[in-house]
Amino acid sequence: MEKRRSRDISLDGDTYTIRRGRECMETKLARIAEVARTKPEERFTSLAHLINKEMLKQCHKEMKTGKASGVDGITKIGYEQNLEENLTDLVNRMRRQAYKPLPARRTYIPKPGTDEKRPLGIPAYEDKLVQAGLTKVLNAIYEEIFLDCSFGYRPGRSCHDAIKMLRAIVNKPSIHYVVDTDLKKFFDSVNHNWMMKFLEHKIEDKNILRLIQRMLKAGIIEAGIKHDTHEGTPQGGVCSPVLANIYLHYALDLWFEKAFKKNCEGEAYMVRYADDIVFCFEHKREALDFYEALIERLAKFDLSISKEKTKIIELHKDKDDDGDSEPFDYLGFTFYLDKNPNQFNFKEIRLKTSKKKFQASLLRCKIWIKENRTLPTREFMKRMKSKIQGHINYYGVTGNYRSVNGFVRKVRAQLYYWLNRRSQKRSFNWEKYELFLKKYPLPRATTKVYIYELGKGSNYLKRTMPRRAVCVSSACTVL
User: Fold this and answer.
1) pTM (2 d.p.)
2) E strand residue ranges, 296-453
């Protein structure tokens, strides 16, 4: 067996053993992360060389097969037929500054239960690779400075981490007010000039900045017509989530933690998953002041809130308080007040699947069953089981068994109805259907996530300021 080649390199006194290409790439990114963590004032001047053939090949391996193609019509399978030549040509064009991203293909996906559709921008495959490499570089830098209250689309953080954090905050005895915030068309409203200013706080490499600006200005093609993009970052782009986090980090997170929160007499917290944000306060006056300050702050960066969906909610946790607390939704869950079995005089915030998401999930299953019921039985039930299990995996949190079990029962009834409509003659009576489910059993409702065990970001509750050093002086111009 051939021995693996390795070599040692030294960076500022630290020795790293490099084995083959991927470990070399990961070591370089780890070094960038270390500098970002230990030297908050540092600006990175040389990053573009990291997006090389080695990194792009790794990005290609990580791409999922079967995804929709962009305006070039090229898929992963088509691109890898001449992978070496394609990547060599791509890297050469990037080095000559001849690489220009193609416009994203605009498509719309329906929102089940409504007449609305969500716009997506699908990049060309080559652009997906470059954006994936760029995302790795940006994550290495910004993961070390993002705050613990931010969760959306970050490595190692999930929706459940945000849910756990918010549940713990709203159940603190001192928290009595929640500002449930809804940003209006955030991804379509990102100001490109502000985006570049924010990036320049940490990045001085003109090649990287030029690359990001070209991506933002690449445009959209819809119905064969190209539209210029003077603002926004299209949903569907590989690097859109990290760019959105960077934008909100400077526009909102730092301002709340370093400026507004410092002037609060009581406790104040925020939990943000991308553009889904909830703020929690101890005092009503500070919640009201924040609401007004938030509108002014967002306007500075061409953002706004939906006043119909943004509201201030008072939490009546005292059992003797006759006031009714309005429930609020976050990431598909409804947060509502209920009796606390362990504390006689107090209520606690509990979670259940939001009515809107419950109905939307049922509708998606109904549509899928109706359209695919003619598949071979084994394949049909295998995919049906996967869809139900996905719902259980997400919504199966502590205290939500009733909602999840209700979903499974309703899907089971839907399945019985539509399988009986595969022909003019009924396929099952209920007894035969029970025997059918013994052969092809459906998943059962169960608790998958224990929300009382805090995950990522738990240190946020223990300190007034985040754990990691943050470059405040360089961001003072936007505070």
Assistant:
1) 0.87
2) 311-314, 328-330, 333-339, 347-353
